[in-house]
Amino acid sequence: SFVKIDAQKLKNQILKTGYAISGNNPNPIYQSHFMKIDYGKINMFSIDGFRIVIMDEDYDDMSYDDKRFILQGQSMIEISKIIEDKDEFIKFGYDDRHICFMTENTIITTNLVTGKFLETSDFLPKESDFKSVAKIKLSDFKSAVERVALMSSNKLIKFSTKDFLMNIESRNDAVGDAKEIVDINLEGSDFEIAFNGDFILDAIRYIDEEYININLVDSLSPCVITPENNKNYQNVVLPVRMR
Question: What is the pLDDT of residues 119-131, one digit of tens each?
Fold first, then answer.
């Protein structure tokens, strides 16, 4: 049997969670899209070993109870491409080995991936564990990271805070150092942490709010980046150990 769901919501959810699908890791889990359905809510996420992106979305008239699918990541990206702007709904159904998506003009059936379904609670720090929460204007943060990343010889970017300012720095032994400063609203302790700059830019690429929150436990624990007003969209990036 098929159920009919909001096509544009599904497309948006696939695109916002698809960037963490690995393109070169042979482990099929890292090339997969995870999808969990529970009474009108779809939880979708992907993981590549260095980052995780998770998004919850509510859907009307979704009657499935606690269904879990491991989907081929590239197939899900292709499914997002067949959803046109004019499409209001998409139908989908499944059996033990396949999942099928159907628009007015196209049907895509793809094999399910066998393996253990991952639970995001095993990877995510609890909200109560966060020692620092930095609220930053997204446009200022994005442009600063992009400029600093141009100078980095190894994609490493260091972030540190003091007096409600964030320093964003990179180093290139052949050319020199780069440093940007952005205003923040910081709750909790000052911090110093480093990340792969490409991963940070990927994490904020699909956020469409004015401000983001960067949530940190310590310099060795995963960082969680969320839109200020939507904790259901979580972009998790593992830090790089600083020398």
Answer: 888 888 888 899 9
Q: In 3-state terms, what secondary structure has residue 133?
A: strand
Q: pLDDT grade, residue 22 (50/70/90)? A: confident
Rg from Cα positions in the chain = 19
Q: Could you tell me which of 120, 116, 149 has the C-alpha nearest to residue 222?
A: 120
| Residue 92 pLDDT greater than 80, yes or no | yes
In 21-159, which residue ranges form alpha helices assigned H by DSSP?
Answer: 73-82, 138-149
Q: Please, is 155 exposed, middle or buried when counting C-beta atoms within 10 Å of its C-beta (0-12, 13-18, 19+)?
A: middle
Tell me if the pTM is above 0.70. Answer: yes
Report, in this order, helix, strand and coil percent for the chain, each rounded to 5: 25, 40, 35
Nearest-CA neighbor of 9 among 66, 1, 17?
17
Q: How far is CA 48 from the centre of its chain?
A: 11
pLDDT tens string 95-104: 989 999 998 8
pLDDT > 80? residue 243 = no
The residue count of the chain comes to 243
Residue with tokens 């196209």: 106
List of residues 6+ apart from 30 with CB closer than 8 A: 21, 22, 47, 48, 49
Tell me how far CA of residue 148 lies from CA of 89, 100, 211, 214, in angstroms: 42, 44, 20, 18
Pairing of strands 32-38, 41-47: antiparallel
> In b/e form, how buried is each residue of 195-211, taking b as 16+ CB within 10 angstroms?
bbbebbebbbebbeeeb
